[in-house]
Design goal:
The protein is of the alpha/beta class and 427 residues long. The chain is 24% helix and 31% strand. The strands form 4 sheets. Strands 5-6-7-3-8-9 form a 6-stranded mixed sheet, with helices on both faces. A 5-stranded mixed sheet has the order 12-18-17-14-15.
């Protein structure tokens, strides 16, 4: 049985709204704090500071993580995820409770912290690596790999102040990604850079996880959580409300969103605020499944997306375009409404196009619904993200887990298995 390398026992963290966050104190700071303590108590007794100004970012949180586990930590903004990682990283001290960590810890909480704009990229690699706990020998040994991963090799001797923001982030992540700790703590760093670099980051994190290291990964990217993690902890109001299977944890997280927003499957617009241009305006979109109202659906149900729009002029060759994209921006599916209009052009008026996505097509993941339209010859109305489709649950029946079904699509295909008659076997 593997040993626990991270133990959190009744952990609580209190903050004063508008107050200064405190970490571990120096001896001098401790003396000042002791001297000022009577005055702080007098201030509280006088009613200057009230209980409403204090919040518990974490409250009585307990969990254990075993050696080699990859654990996803998810929850809404403000749930306490980042506070937990800061306590585990010893950036901030707990108010109550106990944390025990066995092994060398490295944290990727804010990529690029410690970069100096006046220093070159090469110098910043050494500086940032030292801040993250790497020795100079270790940085030198990995320098070429870091440079190749970042993609900014040609600019390593240029001051970072002349880098674009994307270049700085790429170099910073490249340094952090080449740490070799026993426990790696990651907070939403896979959102850095462009889509190509994000895929590279995700691949690097997969390598880290596959290497047997313990990983705590906070992210709002459910696709990345599914690909990287074997266990999920859902945090709400500073407490763990779920700890277990990845798919079930994601479903719990999605169902915990603001009920009004989570239940929203219809959008309406009026007047000039509606997406579109002087030729066409979207008026509304409705999304529903044939087994559930949404927006969370199972893989085995069909989903209909109805798009209502108003043509302000006669348009020839108009097409409504629909895309489903992954959280990393990759197009999972793209389609356009069928050619059922008058070849001479459809007259002004209100129209409704309906796209029906078949059941047993998409894998369990989160997809962004992106709408636009095309008006020949080259006019494409600016696309806009409408909402998210959340496909949860096992995409196929059987005993295989979600990790056995990779890919964006997971269609239910027909198989046949038959014994081969001996006399039909060729020479």
């Amino acid at each position: 049985m593997s040993r626990s390398v991270v133990t959190v026992d009744n952990l609580s963290k209190e903050y004063v709204i508008g107050g200064r966050e405190t970490g571990y104190e120096t001896f001098r700071e401790m003396l000042v704090s002791i001297t000022a303590a009577p005055f702080r108590r007098l201030k509280r007794l006088s009613g200057t500071v009230n209980a409403d100004e204090r919040i518990w970012a974490l409250k009585d949180l307990s969990l254990k993580v075993s050696d080699g586990e990859v654990v996803g930590i998810i929850g809404r903004n403000g749930a306490g995820k980042s506070t937990l990682l800061k306590v585990l990283s010893r950036i901030t001290a707990p108010t109550e409770g106990r944390v025990e960590i066995r092994g060398r810890v490295a944290s990727l909480l804010e990529v690029g912290t410690g970069f100096h704009p006046e220093l070159t990229g090469r110098e910043n690699v050494y500086l940032n690596g030292a801040i993250l706990g790497m020795s100079r020998t270790e940085i030198t040994r990995k320098f070429d790999d870091i440079a190749d991963f970042s993609g900014v090799t040609k600019f390593l001797d240029t001051p970072v102040k002349r880098y674009s923001s994307g270049m700085s982030v790429r170099l910073a992540f490249a340094v952090a990604a080449h740490l070799e700790p026993e426990i790696l703590i990651i907070d939403e760093v896979l959102a850095v850079g462009d889509a190509e670099f994000q895929r590279k980051c995700l691949g690097k994190m997969k390598d880290v996880a596959a290497g047997g290291r313990t990983v705590l990964f906070v992210s709002h990217n459910m696709g990345a959580i599914r690909q990287l993690c074997g266990r999920v902890i859902v945090i709400k109001d500073g407490k763990a409300i779920f700890d277990g299977d990845v798919d079930e944890g994601i479903a719990t997280h999605l169902s915990d969103f603001d009920m009004e927003a989570a239940a929203k499957t219809e959008w309406r617009w009026n007047g000039t605020d509606a997406p579109g241009n002087e030729q066409i305006r979207f008026r509304g979109v409705t999304i529903e499944g044939d087994k559930s109202p949404g927006p969370t659906f199972r893989p085995d149900e069909a989903i209909s997306i109805a798009i209502e729009y108003e043509q302000l002029a006669r348009l020839r060759g108009l097409r409504i375009l629909l895309r489903l994209t992954t959280p990393l921006g990759d197009v999972a599916f793209a389609t356009a409404d069928e050619d059922q209009r008058d070849p001479e052009g459809s007259p002004p008026g209100v129209y409704r196009s309906v796209c029906r996505l078949p059941a047993n097509l998409f894998n369990a993941a989160t997809y962004n619904v992106v709408l636009s339209c095309r008006i020949p010859p080259n006019n494409v109305v600016k696309q806009f993200e409408l909402a998210q489709l959340n496909i949860v649950g096992s995409p196929n029946s059987g005993s295989m887990s979600h990790q056995d079904w990779p890919g964006i699509l997971c269609p239910k295909v027909e198989w046949s298995v038959n014994p081969v008659v001996p006399d039909q076997i060729g020479p």
